Amino acid sequence: MSNTVIHKSNTRGHANHGWLNAHHTFSFANYHDPQRMHFGVLRVLNDDEIAGGKGFGTHPHDNMEIITIPLQGDLAHKDSMGNEEVIRHGDIQVMSAGTGVRHSEYNNSPDKMVKLLQIWMFPNKGNVTPRYDQITLNIADRHNKFQQILSPSPDDEGVWVHQDAWFSMGNFDKDFTTEYTIKRSGNGVYAFIVKGDVTIEGNQLNTRDGFGIWNTDKITITANSEDAEVLLMDVPMEV
């Protein structure tokens, strides 16, 4: 029998700092809910809007896999490893913080909003050498199918992480149905509805809702609106 959890968009933690409008699916910063600390190794799922010219000053991380997915606009990144990059919609960025890294993230435009998802996962090995990677994917390749954007292997599609995790994104026409098979025994899947209305395993979900399921081998997803967009995070349930 599978287990499920639903996190409706309006139940997320919320902090509006003016320059930053942030929604937290899991406990983060001043938002703390003991029932919503993580989903398996998935520790943070932040849905951020950053005003023009604003951003996060230099700050440290360690022993965390950090994935950034821009949804709109351009994000400027600079870190202590010497990387200075701009991340755009269609790009996927990963940092393995490992023994420690410092970085900053700013909206690269003075007047346009940046929207992004930032996701943190616990790694499966500690104190690795810090690492940065960024790739550009063809969004057209996720029309009515899931495009893999992250995996545990540098030889596989997407960026790679120090964890037995696979992320995929898909854009679906109304009434299109597809199945997703979980990649590794013992993993669960956390689905985040980027936009639109979908049904997953009989559960009606809407824009920015989250749905977690484990103790199952596959899930069925049906789009109930045009151009529904879904992010699937296939992750170990044991931290």
How would you describe this protein?
The relative contact order is 0.19. Helices cover 0% and strands 55% of the residues. The strands form four sheets. A seven-stranded mixed sheet has the order 1-20-17-22-15-13-14, with no helix packed on it. The protein has a seven-stranded antiparallel sheet with strand order 2-3-4-11-6-9-12, with no helix packed on it. Strands 5-10-7-8 form a four-stranded antiparallel sheet, with no helix packed on it. It is mostly beta strands and 239 residues long. The chain has two domains: 13-136, Jelly Rolls, CATH 2.60.120; 139-236, Jelly Rolls, CATH 2.60.120. The model has no long low-confidence stretch (mean pLDDT 97). The chain has no helices and 22 strands.
The count of strands amounts to: 22
Which residues form runs of ≥5 with pLDDT under 50?
Answer: none
CATH class of the largest domain: Mainly Beta
Beta strand %:
over 45%
In CATH, the architecture of the largest domain is Sandwich
Provide the helix percentage.
under 10%
Label this structure with key terms.
239 residues, mainly beta, Jelly Rolls, 7-stranded mixed β-sheet, 7-stranded antiparallel β-sheet, 22 strands, 55% strand, globular
Topology overview:
Layout: E1 3-7, E2 13-16, E3 20-24, E4 42-50, E5 55-61, E6 65-72, E7 74-79, E8 84-88, E9 91-96, E10 101-107, E11 114-121, E12 131-136, E13 146-151, E14 159-160, E15 166-172, E16 177-181, E17 187-195, E18 198-200, E19 203-205, E20 210-214, E21 218-223, E22 228-236
Parallel strand pairs: 13-14
Antiparallel strand pairs: 1-20, 2-3, 3-4, 4-11, 5-10, 6-9, 6-11, 7-8, 7-10, 9-12, 13-15, 15-22, 16-21, 17-20, 17-22, 18-19, 18-21
